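Q: Structure tokens for this one, please.
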Amino acid sequence: MATEPDSKHAFLTSIEKTHGRQLRRYLAARLRNAAADVPDLTQEVYLRLLRIDNHETIRNTQAYLFTVASHVLHQHGLRHATRPESVEILDVVSELQSLADTDPAAQVEVEQRFEKLGQRLFQHSPRAYATLVLHRCDGVPLQEIADQLGVSYTMVKRYLSKALTYCQQCLQEGE
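A: Here is the predicted structure, written as tokens:
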């Protein structure tokens, strides 16, 4: 007789084999950052399926799978809805550089503002600063930064968002 964990493992393996590709396509079609989020959300769906005590009572596994996936997507959307919109560093840079025009004194002022902004960001969050510099200035991929910092890919995305949001706030304050 199979033990309960073996039964759950067989159930999950069967679902992944039968509907795994459909699940990933379903999630990817509904996400903005599909390449980064689909693996995490797929894993969350499977973890929730593992928590089911009586999986034998499920009549339609495909319908149940996509219902769970819909709930995971909904919760993912709620988590991201409370975050500020992402800020592009190129917009921030162009805003500062537009102030300089061709005046050398203005160029020096812009460079000093960049330096001051970098120092303030470093004091605010050294990891956000490091992520911004490594990714945007040095072109290091986010996964590589995650490995260097010893954190998850998702955490590195949060650091980058934090850095860009902080820079935008400082610029809006006129500092």
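A few notes: The chain has two domains: 4-81, 89-173. The mean pLDDT is 79.
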